[in-house]
Amino acid sequence: MGAAMIPVQSSESPRLAATAASHTPRLLAAVRPGDIVTEPYAHYTRPNAVPAPLYEELSAGFPSLAMIINDRVDIGSNEAVRMTAKQVLSDRRISPLWHDFFEYHTSAEYWREVARLFAPHFRREFPDLEEKVGRAYEDWRVVPRGYAGEADVRLDCQFVMNTPVTHKSSVKTAHIDLCDKIFSALYYMRDPRDQSEGGDLDLYGWRREPRFVKHRALSRDVELAKTVPYRANSYVCFVNSPQAVHGVSPRDRTDVPRRYINFIAELPIKAFEPRQLGRLQRFWYASEIDLALNEDKY
Predict the structure, then answer these.
(1) Coil, helix or strand for 164?
(2) I need a labelling partner for 87 at 20 to 30 A (CA). Which of 17, 66, 71, 290 fits?
(3) Beta strand pairing call for 43-46 and 222-228
(4) Domain containing residue 84
(5) Residue-by-residue DSSP string for 170-236
(6) Model pTM score
(7) Domain holding 66: CATH number?
């Protein structure tokens, strides 16, 4: 998979079938459609997502901060740094277990699991998208992000760290993900040394019709609906849409990075267009907008 071009994935390789069946976690395989929660928007959460011994093996092989930043010196407090699937799959320092994990979670088989569970919710949020693409969600062509090939959806799986925190802050307050992404997920791998408070994922509901500054929501417009604790071996996934406002609770000062796996499903077109605040609204809420954007670490 380290070649410059890979084919569109339409079936599982024999190697992947063997490793995934025996060892590599399949984070959605045992989930049933009825397990998906629809409020405040379609999502699924699971603590203790994989058996403890397997989690410990994964945790031990999580790359160091030095490996992820790759000698960068311009890293600030509480910033997100990451390794993409393409970087991981070409890096021999990463364990075979993690290679299998990343290979599977950027595969056509994984996308079919996503579609099995979330296609009805995609259709509700994006009723014209299948027609624009020309295929049902279940039949979309899949290519990992960063590789060449015709694709209806590109999947990424990333090692992510939020860097040590020098002053209490949120890495990202209330927002939606970019509008070419329709599915997002996080798998928390909290370092056992981490004793800090915060870093939880907050899910919000709208108090009014959605409106944004770029992809940010104003605190006056949303209310906290659910908190997913930043806890080792916890998994959360959701449909990204104008409804899917989420953010990270402020994290206390700490020398220990916040660790997780980030999963992305990205389209070659926009799935939606977030409604923006008008000019007068931007003037009225200028101080609140400045505060929100200044807190944004991404």
Answers:
(1) coil
(2) 17
(3) unpaired
(4) 28-295
(5) -SS-SB---TTEEEEEEEE---TT---S--PEEEEEESSS--BBTTB--GGGEEEEEEE---TTEEE
(6) 0.89
(7) 2.60.120.620
